[in-house]
């Protein structure tokens, strides 16, 4: 796991994918989608998605398929109304207690910045529980997003944060009685 000073066991076996059926105009979207497919394959994480063979979703799936991976299972890539509908369905299901899984937003070129601000404001205005907001994990890089999702799976309760885990020098290891 590049970029981390400590390693985690690979605890995620399946990931669901939400993403656009379009490639968008920013070439970083396609490049990052292909990188996500390669990293899922490297980590032996199986993929479930809507079955599309085009756009960003198709780029991830075809990368996993052409390199020997199995597609079965849902990370959120930039997308339009259909992608947001799927994302907000996941949020709604979480609020109804139907799942408590983390939702990883691959924030390519800051695509989800405004959405994250909206969610933070919904918590501040008491329209969304902070526990629901904590289901969202975002990163600008594939490796870090998957690391954060692995961390959340390995350490689901309160305690040490991902940043403290990967930067142990910042931890206060003194015993305070």
From TrEMBL:
A Pfam match: Lysine_decarbox
Enzyme class: hydrolase
Keywords: Cytokinin biosynthesis
SUPFAM superfamilies for this protein: MCP/YpsA-like (SSF102405)
Similarity section: Belongs to the LOG family.
Protein purpose: Cytokinin-activating enzyme working in the direct activation pathway. Phosphoribohydrolase that converts inactive cytokinin nucleotides to the biologically active free-base forms.
Name of protein: cytokinin riboside 5'-monophosphate phosphoribohydrolase
